[in-house]
Amino acid sequence: MGVEGRMRWLVVLLALMCGACGNEGENDQAVSFRLIGIFQGERQEDQCQVPTTDNAISDQSIALPLNNSSISNGYPDSSSFLSFCRGFLQLQNNLFGQRILIDRIDFEYEVPGSSIVVPSGSFPTGFSLNPADADVEQNPNSFGAVNTFFTQLDGQLVPSTLILFLRQNQPSLPQLPYVMIVHVTARGRTESGDLIISNETRYTVEWVAG
């Protein structure tokens, strides 16, 4: 291989190395601000017990009747038997010495086999996460670990506007039943003003007739 060929390979190698460096930086941010997943709370005597780090039940998927009025308010709906006490998002701050103010939860929707793009959405919030080294006595936390927070995505994981869109565009979507994958991320600001974005978690909705 001549000098020119070796130079070309060197340029390619350097480009690959730089690309890997960029990915590592993104992963570092997601480690500091973790979206742990989506969970259910326990139902006790028709009351919803908000999940904690000790008793959270994994909530990864659900089957919903697309054309049923019981889901017209969106999912999860705290007043509906179909989604009572479900759809709690758990977030965690692994930074030391800095709170994170969560300002938005973002949703992307994927329907395999669809001929149209399903619109994305977002949910504005305003809560904060304690730093990982916060004093437990001075920062009591009903959710368990001092640096974690549970929030129910009431009517937001699958909003009523999205349900209406799916109903109105059924000819462009797969025949029922079909699967919709919800990609969820969170974003916020540290106390120093830096934008920070979490890792992604996914939730699966199977749309069925009804």
Shape: globular
**Content of β-strand:** 35-45%
Compute the number of strand runs.
12
N-end to C-end Cα span: 67 Å
Order of SSEs? HEEEEEEEEEHEEE
- Percentage of helical residues? 10-25%
Please mark out the parts with pLDDT under 50 across 5 or more consecutive residues, or reply none: 3-27
What is Rg? 21 Å
With helices defined by DSSP (H or I, 4 residues minimum), what is the helix count?
2
Largest sheet: 6 strands, mixed
What structural class should be given to the helix and strand makeup? alpha+beta
Tally the structural domains. Answer: 1
The overall pLDDT average reads 87
Oligomer: single chain
Search tags:
210 residues, alpha+beta, 2 helices, 12 strands, disordered N terminus
Note the topology.
Blueprint: H1 3-32, E1 33-40, E2 42-44, E3 47-49, E4 57-58, E5 61-65, E6 88-93, E7 100-110, E8 121-129, E9 148-152, H2 160-168, E10 178-190, E11 195-197, E12 201-208
Parallel strand pairs: 5-12
Antiparallel strand pairs: 1-4, 1-6, 2-3, 6-9, 7-8, 7-10, 10-11, 10-12
How would you describe the overall organization of this protein?
The relative contact order is 0.22. Strands 5, 7, 8, 10, 11 and 12 form a 6-stranded mixed sheet that branches. The protein starts with a helix and ends with a strand. The protein has helices at 3-32, 160-168; strands at 33-40, 42-44, 47-49, 57-58, 61-65, 88-93, 100-110, 121-129, 148-152, 178-190, 195-197, 201-208. The chain has one domain. The protein is an alpha+beta fold. It is globular, with a radius of gyration of 21 Å. It has 2 helices and 12 strands.
